[in-house]
Amino acid sequence: MKKRQASKFYPYFDSEEKSVIDKMTGFFNSIVFKHQPILTDFLNPGERDILKTISGNDLFIQEFGGYPNAEKKRVYMTEDWVNLAPCAYEITPCEIVYPQKFAHLSHSAILGSIANSGIETDTFGDIITDNAGHWQIFVKNELVTFFQEEISRIGRSQVKIRPITAKDILHAEDDSTDATIIAASLRIDAVLSGISKQSRKMIKDAITANLVKLNWHGVRDSNIIVKETDIISLRHFGRCQVMNISSTRKGKFKVVLKLWQTRKNRQKN
């Protein structure tokens, strides 16, 4: 294996992702020089995609986020294949204990409290709920005590972070809804306009402001054509996945989507 140059990969991704490309290239080059496996922090799908692009077929990449279908995952990188058990990823599931009879927690409130505590977002994974008042978070093993000491309040509620075992992990509820739109075009601005009920000009402005992502990567071109399985996100609105595309008799497109809206937008509807 030869050392990778980060700049080689800049043209393939949005300019805002250069720092991520630099970091992922650093992981690859570290293995080239040291021949030691690397366990990353929690990476989102876009970061993992960049890492896989840089690594190509030269490394074995395995990933796990603490539970099936996790969005954020830790990645184990090796030169040779290794059979890994879940414990190899050094993830501890934790329950957020709070007075459920008198308080209500939300994903945004939990995330905000963690951010305000100065905790980096790559040190923890998904925040999940069963929609019945129970909340859990996945944390790097070595930082569990730190989380317990730093997270004592979320909003107005006093909370405790309590480590749990794998058998106590919640079955995460999917709060998505199904939606269907009729669009004159499959351009990303047209599809987002249809699902968000914002004008195409507003969507184009959002794209210019780097508020839109396609498959977890920033986009700057409103002419991009979306396809089935694509995931599109619009900051402050939510994200959607294109499930099916078909043509109508009038030459337009029927687009079936799976939609995850922010809580604020769900309440509006």
Architecture overview:
With 269 residues, the protein is α+β, with helices and mostly antiparallel strands. It is 26% helix and 29% strand. It has helices spanning 18-34, 45-55, 107-116, 144-150, 188-196, 200-208, 263-268, and strands spanning 38-43, 60-64, 73-78, 91-97, 124-129, 135-140, 153-154, 157-158, 160-163, 177-183, 212-214, 217-218, 231-234, 238-247, 253-261. Strand 13 and strand 14 form a beta hairpin. The longest helix is centred in the first third of the chain and has 17 residues, at 18-34. The radius of gyration is 20 Å and the shape is globular. The termini are far apart. The mean pLDDT is 94.
At a glance:
With 269 residues, the chain is an alpha+beta fold. Helices cover 26% and strands 29% of the residues.
The poorly predicted ranges are none
Provide a count of the helices: 7
The largest beta-sheet arranges its strands as: 10-15-14-13-11-12
User: What is the CA-atom radius of gyration, in angstroms?
Assistant: 20 Å
From N to C, what is the helix and strand string?
HEHEEEHEEHEEEEHHEEEEEH
Largest sheet: 6 strands, antiparallel
Alpha-carbon distance between the two ends: 53 Å
| Beta-strand residue percentage | 25-35%
Q: Outline, from the CA principal axes?
A: globular
Q: How many beta-strand runs?
A: 15
* Portion in helices: 25-40%
Helix/strand-derived category reads: alpha+beta
Mean pLDDT: 94
